[in-house]
Amino acid sequence: MKLIKTLLAGLTAMVVASGLALSAEAAQITGDIDFAGEVRFDTTSLLTATMVTEWKMAVVSDTTGDFASVPDMTAVAFVTPYVFSPPTAYTGATPLWTVGGFTFELTNSSIDLQTNKFLNISGTGFVSGNGFDRTPGTWSFTSNQSNGGTSRLFSFAANTTAVPAPDSGSTVALLGVALFTVGALRAKFRS
Questions:
Q1: How many Å apart are CA 31 and CA 71, to the nearest integer?
Q2: Quick one: 126 and 160 in the same domain?
Q3: In this predicted structure, what is the pLDDT of residue 146?
Q4: Residue 184: its pLDDT value, please?
Q5: Do residues 78 and 106 share a domain?
Q6: Domain count for the chain
Q7: Are residues 9 and 87 in the same domain?
Q8: Number of alpha carbons in the 13 Å side-chain half-sphere of residue 174
Q9: Torsion of CA 24, 30, 107, 154, to 10 degrees
Q10: Quick one: 67 and 11 in the same domain?
């Protein structure tokens, strides 16, 4: 009986310790970062465009949360070309964008709407940098041509939102507390 109590106490201590260790991980990124500027596509019509071949005057237009350290109007380095049809991933040494110590790796995307007047692309990936953990994020890109005609340059707006994953460390810690309570109650009622 004494051996069982000792084993339960030891197991409980290990579970609680692992829960505390998991909850001590580094912080994930929170907030939004918005971009604006002009782009050149591989065609002069939004309807038939498949990639961005040039980013012109691509700058940060607004930030919130952890991205607030990046001043508005800071130039952004985007991958060139940015192929969106077929959807292309930009990861590892070739992230989709880099600015102010942050990078965004686009893992998947899709065209939500493409007409001769409007292009809307959304996707998901991971944002990292500046000592933060690699954090899941979403990507949104829009471009328009008000008259639907042909053009050399198109305006664009884009946004990346960091979507931190739920904290699993606190769940493990709560499980440890529950196991400890069950063990203590069991010991009390057995004696």
A1: 14
A2: yes
A3: 82
A4: 52
A5: yes
A6: 2
A7: no
A8: 5
A9: -160
A10: no
Show the beta-strand stretches assigned E in 79-163: 82-83, 97-99, 102-114, 118-129, 132-144, 154-162
User: What would the two tokens of residue 139 be?
Assistant: 């990507």
pLDDT at 53: 97
Three-class SS of residue 44?
A: coil
- What letter would DSSP give residue 131? T
In a domain, 170, yes or no: no
3-state secondary structure of 91: coil
Helix pair angle (2-22, 168-190), 10° resolution: 160
Q: How many CA atoms lie within 13 A of 91 on its CB side?
A: 10
Around Cβ 33, how many Cβ atoms within 10 Å? 29
Residue 26, both tokens:
């580094």
Q: Is 91 in the same domain as 138?
A: yes
Confidence (pLDDT) at 165? 77
- What 3-state DSSP class applies to 137? strand
User: What's the pLDDT at 179?
Assistant: 47
Boundaries of domain holding 180: 2-24+175-190
Mean pLDDT in order along the chain per 10 residues (191 residues): 50 48 69 98 96 97 98 98 98 97 98 97 97 97 90 94 74 50 53 60
Give, as one character, the DSSP assignment of residue 27.
P
